[in-house]
Amino acid sequence: MPLSSHLCVCVAEGGSSWVMTESPPRQPCPGHLSSWTWVAADILRWPVSYECIFRLSCCYFVFTYFQSVGKEQKSIYRRGARRWRKLYRANGHLFQAKRFNRRAYCGQCSERIWGLARQGYRCIHCKLLVHKRCYVLVPLTCSRHMDSVMPSQEPAVDDKSDDVDLPSEESDGIAYISSTRKHDNIKDDSEDLKPVIDGMDGIKISQGLGLQDFDLIRVIGRGSYAKVLLVRLKKNDQVYAMKVVKKELVHDDEDIDWVQTEKHVFEQASSNPFLVGLHSCFQTTSRLFLVIEYVNGGDLMFHMQRQRKLPEEHARFYAAEICIALNFLHERGIIYRDLKLDNVLLDADGHIKLTDYGMCKEGLGPGDTTSTFCGTPNYIAPEILRGEEYGFSVDWWALGVLMFEMMAGRSPFDIITDNPDMNTEDYLFQVILEKPIRIPRFLSVKASHVLKGFLNKDPKERLGCRPQTGFSDIKSHAFFRSIDWDLLGKKQALPPFQPQITDDYGLDNFDTQFTSEPVQLTPDDEDVIKRIDQSEFEGFEYINPLLLSTEESV
Q: What is the mean pLDDT of the chain?
């Protein structure tokens, strides 16, 4: 029968799935080819899944049809960002930077390890403590099964993160740093050292705002570390988004750093129209709460999943506003490092706002670089994958990936294969590093040129990366020539699309996988709370004075 081979192949190429639930006859019925062609053409217009019985003359067949999004959308789905932990290898040891809250002495030179933040390294296996300058000199071979720490040393405080296994090829990944690399300029963002205080003795629970001041309305997002809720402030009925982070998940020095960094960037972002700003922060014994602006138009991921791809005019407008937001961060020494469709929100008027600053790196001056291996896999720049020091260039690469997705309806690094060995993260990274990027022919010359500029694998040649003139190069590019940057920066340019707000909160613009979740916080586990070092979160409370004065005048 014609459908059993030829038609199924044609449908598969169109991006849809067919399941034949009854076997076709061994002999095709005469004259059915034209009828089946008509049936297939009609079915392909159906928007959802159907199971139907077709009758053609004397033959009955049952088919289940599944409408899918097509090839151009296979990569348009949500992926979480993460950090690969830095470990320094030397003579069998795997050292990790640690903060020592008690007296600690170097196992190599026997001198005291002192200083601020993460002062030294500790082997994750044998617990050997050393200065950062001494780890490459350690002559002792690591014993992964040592029963005790060397007598001259004191154990570090955060013992919860000690038992780290060597990564397998399928693990989430650990970034290995060669012992031949120089580390003279290592910088840390940690706060000054504070004495360890167990339980609640060393911290005052928020005296300003608290969870009791808000009504919890709906779940609107979820990430690796946090849940995002839609909430209403009881005293004035203002609506906000509330990011909730369990303290038990923030058990490592690096995790504590990113929480502080995200809070600080949120504070600075409040003065930019294209960045989500911070209203307030508070905490309980088990959780951290960041109350931020609520942007009710949904994210670009949500809209891309429904529209497949965007007209170039739309992509140009969104990309230009993103450029202004990124330049604002860069001028303040901040690398964003997590630009993706999920993190680009649309407000009720159709303007963009970037959100989620958990991957940001602060404190970079002109010419400064960093080396943390982090990001969302599909958006990670080649220089990060090569293990090179990098700067603001990685944000412009990610913008190129995002613009490609908006205009082409797919990722520039699509891997369409049934080979499981080619569906791995390692293979994706190989594609990013080595494969040339093919620009779809249906895009305009200007669009192709700007994508090639942002997606240049050499950061020195990448659009936006020239010292002093990078942002000017972007604004003067032919693709953006129709943009009035002054009007755009004041949010006076008319957006090409306005999200539909059909209820009081615009919840139709959020994925139902989130909004269908129950609005509740799991009960606290007293045993878990007792293990939390509450002193790590001192000073977390915050209220934005600008927003506070605005509320009081309402």
A: 75
